[in-house]
Amino acid sequence: MLRYVTTNAGKVREAEEYLDDGSVTQLDFDYTEIQAPTLEPIAARGAREAYRHAGAPVLVDDAGLFVDRLDGFPGPYSAYVEETVGVERVGQLARRGDDPARAAFRCVLAYCDGDPFDASPDPIDRGDRAAAAAVGTDEGDDATDLPVKLFEGVVRGRIVEPRGSGGFGYDPIFEHEGTTFAEMGSTGKNAVSHRGRALAKFTEWYAGR
Which family does the record claim for this protein (predicted)? Predict the structure, then answer.
């Protein structure tokens, strides 16, 4: 059984659209979210910690909105910026008036089951000693040598005036092919979302694991 580490049941439902029925379950585990300029080390560190907690295969994701004009901000800090600055203010900063800004939603899935991985086009994070040192872990080499497989999903779009009442987070200001994520139904959004694209890559690989 694969444990999807999240407090958001919607993410598990989205994963179930790609994985076989009954093969994934939700794990509510508060892993350490390190500070990093990219998503990969955050997800990888969380997957290692979650695997040590669960003792079973785990999947952890980290995602963010990357605005070209703002040099990728808010990126890995998207959730914090949403809570403190607010979605509409981020949109105003990005647009600079009526001029839309190019942006991308990115998601990185991190998978860990305690075993090594064969080489493939998808990257493998083989150790997070720097991250472990940053949070002061003293769990030894076994804690930082667990290999983690990473899968990225990206969807390009632009930042616009808020539209739509669905979705959550930055969905009202992120437009993809003329429609904001908040204007899409869940099925339509999942079909093009960054998380869905990462899940598609993961499930294709996981089928042969």
Answer: Belongs to the HAM1 NTPase family.
Mean pLDDT on 110-136: 70
Domains and CATH numbers, the chain: 2-206 (3.90.950.10)
Cα 124 versus chain centre, distance: 16
HSE-CB of 190 using CA atoms within 13 angstroms: 14
125 carries an active-site annotation: no
Tens of pLDDT, residue by residue over 11-29, are: 888 888 888 777 899 999 9
Among 28, 30, 61, 62, which one carries the catalytic annotation? 62
Distance (Å) of CA 110 to CA 18, 20, 124, 156: 16, 19, 9, 21
* Distance separating alpha carbons of residues 165 and 190, to the nearest angstrom: 16
Count the neighbouring beta carbons within 10 Å of the beta carbon of residue 166: 15
Q: Report CA Rg, the chain.
A: 17
Amino acid at residue number 183? E
Taking the C-alpha atoms of residue 144 and residue 48, their distance in angstroms, rounded to an integer, is 8
